[in-house]
């Protein structure tokens, strides 16, 4: 069965899209640690990061860097953190999280966003993609 993220790529489930190319897709996390928390995924559905072929792994990191630089330019924060966990959704995803302190990186503290908040943040980040 297709993962929830494959359904997002196909547009079967809505998302606040940030960026897309032939092989990768970036969208806002629906339950963000902080505003601007973004997920970058390969279109190829693979569960575990280290099971990606090297080309896809390197491509995902390059794509995540591009999106991360846009987040850093759009969202006031100390820095953008990058982490891969994958215990919830079995489709590789890189978390890009605007950080100001360690709590922002813990996944214990969440900042609920309204639909308008998500739309505004997505537009701000998209405008900074180079
Ligand atoms: P992990 O698998 O790395 O533990 O976390 C999965 C992440 O995906 C979580 O941060 C969760 O909020 C996010 N997530 C789960 N389902 C959806 C969804 O349907 N849409 C979006 N945008 N994010 C999701």
From TrEMBL:
Residues 4-107 form the HIT domain. Gene3D superfamilies: HIT-like. GO terms for molecular function: hydrolase activity. One of its GO terms (biological process) is nucleotide metabolic process. The keyword Hydrolase applies. It comes from the Bacteria. A motif (Histidine triad motif) lies at residues 91-95. It holds the Pfam family HIT. Keywords: Hydrolase. The active site is at residue 93. InterPro entries: Histidine_triad_HIT (IPR001310), HIT-like (IPR011146), HIT-like_sf (IPR036265). This is Hydrolase. It comes from Arenibacter certesii.
């Amino acid at each position: 069965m297709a993962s929830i993220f494959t359904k997002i790529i196909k547009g079967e489930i809505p998302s606040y899209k940030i960026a897309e190319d032939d092989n990768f897709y970036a969208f806002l996390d629906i339950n963000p640690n902080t505003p601007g928390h973004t997920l970058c995924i390969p279109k190829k559905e693979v569960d575990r990061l280290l099971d990606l072929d090297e080309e896809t792994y390197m491509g995902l990191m390059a794509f995540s860097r591009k999106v991360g630089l846009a987040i850093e330019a759009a969202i006031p924060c100390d820095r953008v953190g990058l982490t891969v966990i994958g215990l919830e959704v079995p489709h590789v995803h890189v978390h890009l999280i605007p950080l100001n302190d360690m709590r922002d990186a813990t996944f214990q503290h969440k900042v609920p966003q309204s639909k308008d908040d998500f739309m505004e943040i997505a537009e701000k980040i998209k405008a900074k993609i180079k």
